[in-house]
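Running log. JK asked me to keep both predictions on one page so they can be read side by side. First protein, sequence followed by its tokens:
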Amino acid sequence: MKQTENYIWTSFLNSGKRHLILTGTHRAGKTTRFQAFCAHLKDMGESLPGITTYAVPGKCVMLKENVSGAEVEIGRFYPENKERPMIEVKEGFSELGCPALVRMAEADGEWVSIDELGFLESNEQAFQDAVRMVFEKKRVIAVLRKQSIPFLNELKEREDVFLVDLDDYHRKVGCVIMASGMSVRFGDNKLFAEIGGKSFLQRILELTEGIFTKRVVVTRSKDAAEYCRNQKVDVILHELPYRSDTVRLGTEYMEDMDGIVFCPCDQPMLGRESLLKLRNAFSFEGKKLLRLVFAEKAGMPALFGKEYFAELKNLPEGKGGSYLLKKYKAEIEKIQVADKLELFDIDTKEDLEELKKSAIFL
């Protein structure tokens, strides 16, 4: 697979979701990506039964069962009908579409392919039910037209679906590493406190490497700034007093991004998969405001879409991103972490000793 396909496929695998759905406008690359992923699955030994629909320009839409090669007409063009130039052919769905899906659901192998679903299926209840059955019994890789149709929306909104909108997959996500704390309760520079033989600062730089379009560390510590420069990581060194200053400086640095993750330095158990879930939910699923949670306990990091940049730059004095998270609580997409310790933040040396008793660092 090419770099783009590898990026999407890896993100899908990291998501833990069961099904992969591609959507996008005309010429967004749906078919190219779909074929690349299907070829990859076949290379892995999957038989990959499926159905394909294709248009005969100006005449009809055909449905093909890939294994048998059987084809049937499921839509017919009527150009003179300006309101609805395409009419479904119900016999095609009942004679081949539904039986093919049943065969796919009962076939050997883990995966099924569907290319593509659109408006013709919107009035075919039996066909819709057969598709739902396939989604329950198999893993599905599918292409959906980018249309707001109840059945298509239902599939896209399933909890077990990883949705890739190819019009938005390239959205740029920056990471602001928040390292401006005064470490008053900790007693000395917390950024260089160690656990498992690595400092907090080293851990967060290793954790965020390669995930984001760009990243920057915002800090008041000259030692931390020097360490970052030695690691070839962008850094903003400042002497401003408030958390709102740190957020503003980071946001200004990320003005060309579509979204920003604000990542604390003092959560040494934070997992890379959790950061990938944040990024992917934004880049591929169109979410705009996200934060990590364990069960119902909310934590950080959080991701803010561009819609929130202006407010991030103009927070009340002394306030941080949590101010907006409270203000827009109803809009937050919650991303679950695997372990509650990921959200455990270190404020004191006692906290650090407690964590060392609870966690195993390799």
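And the second, directly underneath as requested:
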Amino acid sequence: MPENDNAPPAEDPRHRWGLSRYVAAATLARAADRGAVVGIVLVVTTSGAPGWLAGLLGASITALHLLGPFIARRLDTAHDGRHVIAAACLIHGATLAAAVLLYPAVWSMLTAALLRVSGLFGPFLTGGISSRLPGIVGTDLHS
């Protein structure tokens, strides 16, 4: 009996829930990255600081996203990009937490510096997970 060339390929069990996992991971990463700006603005404005400072600190975490295409090279050349993304998540979270917790006690420019470091790793959260899409859901057209 001849093989049917139009039949969909057998599904790889590793990719069965791949799209669901991707959507969950991408949603959490983007919510953490974009929610950080909202959180910073709320922390600054509720402390009674001027709006320009809230804007400056909010911009501190987002401005370095412009470097995403340049820093993504590290992800492209890594032996296993998952380790780079995991490290970026840890650094992003740690520096963001440090900035928020230290904000009331330190000079605002130190907070801005911590937020810039956090923002430097933001593209790994958003674009990094998207770059792993073929490995998550499979490389064939059907998946």
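Observation for JK regarding the second prediction: Residues 18-46 form the longest helix (29 residues).
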